[in-house]
Amino acid sequence: MHQPLVTDATLTTRGEPMRDQLSCPLAAPHPTEAKLVPGYLLTPFGWAAQLLAGMVDAEPDLLAHVFELDRQRMHVIALALAHLDGNPPPQLGPVLLRGSARDLLHRVLGRSPVGIKRVLRRLPFAVLSQLSYRRLVQLLDNPQATKLLHHLPDAEITDSMIGVLYEVPAPLRAVALATRGLIHKLFPEGLRLLASRGAAPSFDLLVADLATRSQPGQFVARIKDLVASLPLPQTLPPAQIGIARRLDSTGEVCALANQWKNCLGERTGQIDAGECAIYLWDDPTAPAVCQVTRHGRLGWFLTEALGPRNIEPEPEQMQQIRSAFADAGIPESSVAYAIDCILSDYAPRYRTRTRRQRRRLDRERRERDLHEEAWTQETLQPEPGKEIPVPPSSTPQGQQRAPAANARE
Hints:
single chain
């Protein structure tokens, strides 16, 4: 039976239901020109999927190489595209998909960052954000940061991990990673808050003081001591902040809650206890209620701002509210969270290993790295007539022997 000819237009039409898989503004085809639309198989490429599809559309011979991509090559491509601001030249397509990684990095960055090969093996199954790739290259330019990336306790290097390493001051990076995820990316803002509250004469001196505590327990204990030494807030926040007026009357707060149909009336107990303050952002066109909460000795912080029926303000108005309260010495609560999560959630999450256990784990890790590197080389450069091998399992030897042990029992 005669089969109909499959054309680019047919593929584009059949791929239309899959456009929603990628939230990319470039995913919609031009009304007068058929373009390749990334489908489910390119989902790990995320924001880079449409750029890759555009290159394949310009040079269809590259399509076969897309099916041969491994995880490391995917991240090299995304890293290069992240440094091109989403506008790669058409002639770069063959280099992205067929050239060596070193040649590609030299063309885009002018160099091959030291230690990037080892880092690529620990990146996740999907691409990072464009900002994370740019920050990763800057971190690799620092030998100490490169060493930390190579010896991270976690199996994968994620966006959040790169953000913490980039934002935290360099002397505190090692201990920040040792606390196992308790350091928030806004932790530097929390340190500046402590310095402004009197924990140290300056931000730099505070960082130098904390840098002398190399162990997680000592580091957290020092932060607790600094917070405990802060003076208690003596007064309530100002009665007037910009165009926002503080509501001290319980009746006024409850009346506004009934009028705006929200749960503002449930805050009266906190208001009476001096733990919370409610402000009315008196904008005739877009009024809003701003909640300010006290976080112990850290002071007062802006928790949220909502309009009638809990409608969120427009971004421009929200920025005005944040700026007005910040000028009054009341930052956002996310800054306090960066300190609170250390004070309340920290507990040692590691156990001491014997020397024999450490040697065994190091030996197994080296063996896995050697197997993975050998498999990568054989996969990327297979011998003539030789089938591509199946990647070795990364399951620890103890887990592989478990079924047999259970069978003997």
